[in-house]
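User: Quick one: structure for sequence A, then sequence B.

Assistant: Sequence A:
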Amino acid sequence: MNQNACFAAMLVCASVASAHAVPITALINTGSAASGVLDTNYLLTVERGGTRLTERYGYVSQSGLWDQTPWLANSAASKWIVPASDAWTSYDGASDGIYRYSLSFDLSGYRADSAWFTGRFSADNAAQVFLNGRLLATGSDFSRWTSFGADGGFNDGVNVLEFVVTNYRLSAGNPTGLRVEYLGTYIEPAVRHQLALRPAAFEVPEPGSAAVFMGGLGLIGMISRRRRRG
């Protein structure tokens, strides 16, 4: 097989693999439930400060929390999550509080090395974002977004995305919260990747994949015939 034919075969294999890429569905925006309901996607723990939680998760906040310096307004895509059902609750009057929001997701059965995602967050007052303990981004604004993302550092099994929020001390009127939106996610199933790399180790492909693959074989055959005629 000549060099052009090899390149054509590689293109076909790549198209079969990418055709079966899927989103990472476990990456869920904050506030996917109704206002006042627990967001059970994000485990919440207090790392430092005097706050005593009544639940292991944050609550979805109501809209319109501030008049003077507003938090980003809740939307259909995402909402703020907060430590108590009343988002107006004031915290951390004597010292800074640290709140850890953790989202776990399992990539078993997928190619962890193919995964990536992009997103944005806002926090009162500041936050650091970690993927499996690796720092991705920092931000300190509750009226604007901060971008974050990852294209590596994923585990083959369970992964943990953590948002560590610092609430600066203030004697009164001192709520805290987190808002997260994922803008794009991607991963390839492990089985599909193996099939694309080794098409001779036959599994029966889906109709769409079979059409692409057969088209590639036809292209390779045409190139080979032209080579012989030359």
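Sequence B:
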Amino acid sequence: MKKFNLILSLALPFMFLSSVNASSHKLTIKINPINNQAKTITGKTIKGTNVVLYEGQKVITKKKSNGNFSIKVAKPLNFKNKYHLLITKKGYKSKKFNLKIIDQGINYDAKINQINSKIKDINDQLKPLKKQVQVMDPFINALENDDPTSSGYQTALQQADGNAEAYENQYNELNAQIKSVSSQLGPLYDQRQTYIYKSMQQLLKHQD
């Protein structure tokens, strides 16, 4: 009996130590915030840990951590779907971590700014064309006068270097060019208005 007690007393510290070691072998992970615009999941965990990204039961991608990890995905994660990370390492108990995807929404302000930039470029392109037509307007009106002997007609003809037809053709080409360039503005104005409306809807949705 004494011998048994002696063996038990010697074994207990080792059993306790083994229990401590087993409980200390826990995998930990820190995951940085993820939004539905991001294409990368980043965080920190123990070096050599295998990090696997799941969508439901489907494996999307996997990565081995060197302390820090970065997992790239082909497209941003849908905040409506369920994702989780499974981390494993030899000698450690595997752990599952559900991911929370933040619904950041679409950056409509950036889209509106891009459209405003395009509209500005088009208007900058139209300015010199419109200015040139404005200068030509009174001479074109004079050339259309039925009395070629009038002083206005003669002044306009001089401005046209003696070729009224070529001057009128140049005028018509400028107006056609203005019309063609201006036609790009309508769809841009419509798209901008759509983005403004969607931006307001998104703002109201996040306020609910």
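The first strand starts at residue 29 and ends at 31. Residues 36 and 77 are 5 Å apart (CA to CA).

User: Thanks, that's what I needed.
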